[in-house]
């Protein structure tokens, strides 16, 4: 944009607010005297779409989709970046470390979230801006100086073997019994359970193939005796034609959704007295903890759970401190 174009546009804008002629002349005279020291250009908005979300965000999500990330993960990534750019309304190449720090602080206060959840948002932003650098879309990564957010690792409390039996005894229908036994035996995540088809279960060798686990990684898990019996009974009781392994309990019997699974477990648990808060994920934790208690090598527990890093599995082992104390009193007395 030339100075003359800028000057003409300014005159038009000031004229629309009925600025007196003498004041307008004074403003223009001062501007003319300084114009040689300034460069004038039209602000670029090419990286921001009409909806306020940079085009590069959609390219990033598309690239992650190719990496076979789950729909839930992609949705979470997009929501985080949408929230970020709804506040930090800069082209991606103008975002600074200060912008990121201010947004993280604002987001924590506005949403009243934990530091662990906030650090999850930081990780998503770091992934996005690192991808921009790798793709030569930006030159400097504003996340380079943003350190991980310190947070306490929440203690994960599993059920005891007795509490697990209480939950099993509280089941009233074949569907409830199958859900409880399957969650424990497979140690599958809630999202994994909801995505399974009947064809993913092999009753001959009692294996379950999870094709789309966390991070798009597949793995094989297993049915124990109780899970095989209860799952067979549930499948035989169904009258629908759905290929989903678990379906809703009402017509049209669509594939079970995560919220419905959580609600089903909550109804079962409400019928018994337990010392821990039980969600679908607690069955996964319980399976890992009981396996470790009974001597399963931690490397095998890692594969059973589908953890990429053994450090993640070790978080489940922390709850065994009481067992270590009891053994110490027995063997190191």
Topology:
Blueprint: H1 3-16, H2 21-34, H3 55-66, H4 71-87, H5 97-111, H6 115-134, H7 161-169, H8 174-186, H9 190-195, E1 201-202, E2 207-210, E3 219-222, H10 225-237, H11 258-269, H12 280-293, H13 298-305, H14 310-317, H15 321-331
Describe this structure in words.
- The chain has 3 domains: 3-37; 55-134; 161-291, Intergrase catalytic core (hpI Integrase, Chain A).
- The protein has 333 residues and is mostly helical.
- Strands 1-2-3 form a 3-stranded antiparallel beta sheet.
- It is built from 15 helices and 3 strands.
- The N and C termini lie far apart (85 Å).
- It is elongated.
- α8 packs antiparallel against α10.
- Helices cover 56% and strands 3% of the residues.
- Mean pLDDT is 84; it is low at 43-50.
- The chain has helices at 3-16, 21-34, 55-66, 71-87, 97-111, 115-134, 161-169, 174-186, 190-195, 225-237, 258-269, 280-293, 298-305, 310-317, 321-331, and strands at residues 201-202, 207-210, 219-222.
């Amino acid at each position: 944009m030339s100075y003359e174009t800028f000057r003409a546009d300014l005159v038009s804008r000031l004229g629309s607010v009925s600025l007196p002629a003498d004041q307008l002349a004074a403003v223009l005279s001062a501007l003319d005297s300084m114009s040689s020291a300034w460069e004038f250009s039209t602000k670029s908005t090419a990286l921001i779409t009409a909806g306020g979300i940079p085009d590069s965000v959609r390219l990033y999500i598309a690239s992650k989709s190719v990496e076979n990330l789950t729909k839930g993960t992609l949705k979470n990534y997009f929501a985080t970046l949408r929230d970020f750019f709804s506040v930090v309304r800069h082209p991606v190449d103008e975002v600074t470390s200060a912008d990121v720090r201010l947004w993280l602080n604002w987001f924590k206060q506005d949403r009243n979230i934990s530091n662990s959840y906030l650090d999850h948002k930081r990780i998503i932003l770091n992934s996005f801006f690192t991808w921009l650098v790798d793709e030569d879309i930006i030159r400097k990564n504003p996340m380079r100086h943003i350190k991980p957010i310190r947070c306490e690792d929440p203690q994960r409390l599993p059920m005891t073997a007795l509490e697990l039996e209480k939950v099993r005894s509280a089941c009233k229908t074949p569907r409830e019994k199958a859900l409880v036994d399957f969650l424990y035996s497979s140690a599958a995540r809630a999202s994994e359970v909801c995505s399974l088809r009947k064809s993913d279960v092999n009753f001959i060798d009692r294996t379950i193939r999870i094709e789309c686990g966390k991070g798009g990684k597949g793995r094989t898990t297993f049915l124990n005796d109780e899970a095989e019996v209860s799952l067979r009974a549930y499948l035989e009781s169904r009258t629908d034609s759905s290929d989903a392994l678990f379906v809703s309990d009402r017509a049209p019997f669509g594939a079970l959704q995560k919220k419905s699974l959580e609600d089903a477990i909550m109804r079962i648990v409400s019928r018994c007295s337990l010392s821990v808060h039980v969600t679908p994920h607690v069955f996964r934790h319980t399976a890992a903890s009981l396996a470790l208690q009974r001597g399963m090598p931690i490397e095998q527990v890692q594969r059973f759970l589908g953890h990429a890093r053994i450090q993640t599995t070790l978080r489940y082992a922390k709850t065994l401190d009481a067992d270590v104390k009891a053994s110490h009193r027995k063997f190191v007395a």
